[in-house]
């Protein structure tokens, strides 16, 4: 859920000659009118998902403020009708106030989108439940104003590479949230953690603790990455030198909305760690860069074959971009060896990349059962967020730079683009 959806725009006075006393009376009347519809709106907006009830309640705060302002020029008591001309006149300055209250320009646009999206939801609620008190022409006119504002903001919701991608069934989503291997391992580590354990100053596990945790989940490397992800996802919280179960522990493993979010947060941290390990020019760093390209292709439903990954070190089988991946290697030694140094480096990269893919598959985040490096449908959001986090952390300057960085990494990949 976009972060802007948790913020509330500041209260604002109507830009009219309405007296403060009249405005307060109208505000109270609007509050009472909308409070009477709150249970029905929450049921309509949340679609039975308990975790969305708080979000729907927050939307009504925006609705109350805007309806109070828009109705300030109207005669008589406020009603469930919005005057199209008043909406068109008051919405732009209202959105300006919302933007002025934001921390930065990006947050300002997010907040404005949230407001417009909320008003679209409110209008849809009134229409679908038969509560709209204006004419059909007025309803269409208000909808047109809101659509125009949404379009000027670039849409209420950003487009995503996942648009048009397959979606999991309810059963698949619940199974992933409750029983994905990485979730089971995390729950086992929480059991191992008990009431709390001493950790190192950076929050990591010392050698003895790592060996003990590794015995629980299968390997020390898996335990290290899982532990780091659990801390970042707030499934584990640090209190000085002591680690204890965090807030996310309550919901992790559940099949409701909050349980699914906790699983996604945790899985995203695991993927992000795999795509950021190492530094550029090292084997770990190059592996992470190529892994990002492989996962990006999988998310976009254009997966590479597992054979492509395994054959990186084969003579003539690595494609035309070998030199880009080998950037930072000992090129002099490679030249003296007649190119064998590059081949050995590519073999090492292939082995490391395969190991990362196999580990992600063991955790339930990748699927190679059909010979392709694919992402399970239920894990698409999780993996996509992990790749996006990598872009955001590695690149400064916005989405354009992030897209450029992704293209650079893919061009530097030893893998050729899969055929359409």
Automatic annotation (TrEMBL):
Domain of life (superkingdom): Bacteria
**Where do Acidic residues bias regions lie?**
390-402
Compositional bias of kind Basic residues: 1-13
Basic and acidic residues compositional bias: what residue ranges? 403-412
Q: Where is this region: Disordered?
A: 1-23, 388-420
Return the protein name.
Answer: Uncharacterized protein
User: What organism is this sequence from?
Assistant: Sinomonas cellulolyticus
């Amino acid at each position: 859920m976009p972060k802007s959806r948790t913020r509330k725009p500041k209260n604002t006075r109507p830009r009219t000659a309405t007296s403060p006393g009249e405005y307060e009376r109208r505000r109270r009347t609007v509050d009472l009118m909308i409070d009477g519809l709150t249970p029905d709106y929450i049921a309509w907006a949340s679609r039975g998902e308990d975790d969305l009830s708080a979000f729907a309640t927050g939307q009504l705060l925006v609705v109350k403020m805007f309806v109070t302002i828009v109705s300030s020029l109207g005669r008589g008591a406020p009603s469930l009708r919005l005057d199209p001309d008043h909406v068109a006149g008051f919405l732009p300055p209202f959105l300006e106030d919302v933007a002025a209250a934001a921390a930065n320009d990006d947050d300002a646009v997010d907040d404005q989108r949230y407001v417009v999206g909320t008003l679209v939801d409110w209008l849809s609620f009134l229409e679908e439940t038969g509560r709209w008190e204006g004419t059909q022409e007025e309803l269409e006119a208000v909808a047109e104003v809101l659509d125009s504002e949404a379009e000027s903001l670039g849409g209420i919701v950003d487009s995503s590479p996942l648009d048009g991608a397959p979606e999991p069934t309810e059963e698949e989503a619940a199974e992933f949230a409750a029983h994905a291997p990485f979730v089971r391992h995390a729950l086992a580590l929480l059991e191992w953690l008990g009431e709390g354990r001493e950790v190192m100053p950076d929050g990591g596990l010392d050698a003895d603790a790592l060996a003990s945790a590794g015995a629980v989940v299968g390997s020390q490397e898996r335990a290290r990455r899982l532990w780091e992800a659990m801390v970042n996802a707030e499934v584990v919280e640090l209190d000085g030198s002591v680690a204890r179960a965090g807030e996310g522990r309550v919901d992790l493993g559940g099949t409701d909305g909050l349980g699914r979010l906790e699983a996604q947060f945790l899985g995203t941290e695991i993927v992000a760690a795999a795509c950021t390990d190492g530094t550029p020019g090292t084997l770990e760093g190059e592996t992470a860069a190529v892994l990002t390209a492989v996962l990006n292709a999988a998310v976009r439903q254009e997966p590479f074959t597992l054979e492509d990954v395994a054959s990186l070190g084969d003579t003539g089988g690595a494609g035309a971009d070998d030199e880009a991946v080998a950037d930072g290697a000992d090129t002099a030694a490679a030249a003296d060896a007649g190119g064998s140094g590059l081949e050995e480096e590519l073999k090492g990269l292939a082995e490391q990349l395969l190991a990362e893919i196999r580990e992600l598959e063991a955790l339930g985040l990748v699927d190679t059962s059909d010979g392709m490096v694919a992402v399970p449908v239920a894990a698409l959001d999780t993996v996509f967020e992990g790749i996006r986090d990598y872009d955001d952390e590695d690149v400064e300057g916005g989405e354009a730079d992030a897209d450029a960085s992704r293209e650079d990494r893919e061009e530097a990949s030893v893998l050729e683009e899969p055929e359409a």
